[in-house]
Amino acid sequence: MTAHDAIDTLHLISISHQRLEFLIVTSELVFEHPLNEKIRTYLRVETLFNQLEQIKTTLDESDSSVQNFFRTLFDLNDVLDRCEWRSDLLKDLDKQRQLFRQWANAPEIDTSKIDELVLKTDNYFRTINQHPKLANLIKEDRLLSLIRQRLTLPGGACSFDLPQLYFWQHQSLEQRISDIEKWLQPFATIAEVMGFLLSMLREQSVAEQVIAHGGFYQGQREGCAMLRISINGNVRGYPTISGHKNRFAIKFMSLEGAITNDLNFTLTCCRSFQ
């Protein structure tokens, strides 16, 4: 990465913003697709935690609102339970920290910004390294354990099946928010660090304009961890993607079938942490 690239990247990452796996940005639709399992997990955790935060701000006493919160919470727990989140995060944080230190040696670089990023990365590294295990989080909470058992049954959230849940959802909003914050707290730091790494992955990449001839595009890029595909919001279609870190194929589809005309779009290959 050149000095100019590093300066441009630092300018971009200084802009605070959050993205979901599927975003609407002005007149464009931006689709993100992971090309390895680790980034797939990062994106899922980012999406699920953002959903939980949104649910928390709009929580009411309705069955659908409450059940949506708990199902999303259990999904988040399951995603993290199936991966080696601690070792993955520590490795990526260390790689990112080394990259920041390389940038510090570039001419005309804002070293104060580099210092901030290194300090943030160091703090994240220590926090993740000391973070307690999540394995028994649901089991050790009696209410969460009961709700989880019943929500797996069709119609299992009825008041006669789960009087505990019915009682909880009619407590004061302050009490419910307090409980929710307690349940989310163990996941919050993990989601924050994954979001930080995803923002680095996004902002350290360069977009290019390409054409899908007949609605199809095949590409080769070295070490690609995630694809970002931006299409005009007026296009009545979406991309389907297959591939791995070095080779991928993109086929554009509509709800009625395959798109067969040429289509201009913006492609960004977000490369793995170096």
TrEMBL record:
<keyword id="KW-0132">Cell division</keyword>
<keyword id="KW-0131">Cell cycle</keyword>
<comment type="subunit">
    <text>Interacts with FtsZ.</text>
</comment>
<dbReference type="Pfam" id="PF07072">
    <property type="entry name" value="ZapD"/>
</dbReference>
<dbReference type="GO" id="GO:0005737">
    <property type="term" value="C:cytoplasm"/>
</dbReference>
<dbReference type="InterPro" id="IPR027462">
    <property type="entry name" value="ZapD_C"/>
</dbReference>
<dbReference type="InterPro" id="IPR036268">
    <property type="entry name" value="ZapD_sf"/>
</dbReference>
<dbReference type="GO" id="GO:0043093">
    <property type="term" value="P:FtsZ-dependent cytokinesis"/>
</dbReference>
<dbReference type="GO" id="GO:0000917">
    <property type="term" value="P:division septum assembly"/>
</dbReference>
<comment type="function">
    <text>Cell division factor that enhances FtsZ-ring assembly. Directly interacts with FtsZ and promotes bundling of FtsZ protofilaments, with a reduction in FtsZ GTPase activity.</text>
</comment>
<protein>
    <recommendedName>
        <fullName>Cell division protein ZapD</fullName>
    </recommendedName>
</protein>
<keyword id="KW-0717">Septation</keyword>
<keyword id="KW-0963">Cytoplasm</keyword>
<dbReference type="GO" id="GO:0032153">
    <property type="term" value="C:cell division site"/>
</dbReference>
<dbReference type="InterPro" id="IPR009777">
    <property type="entry name" value="ZapD"/>
</dbReference>
<comment type="similarity">
    <text>Belongs to the ZapD family.</text>
</comment>
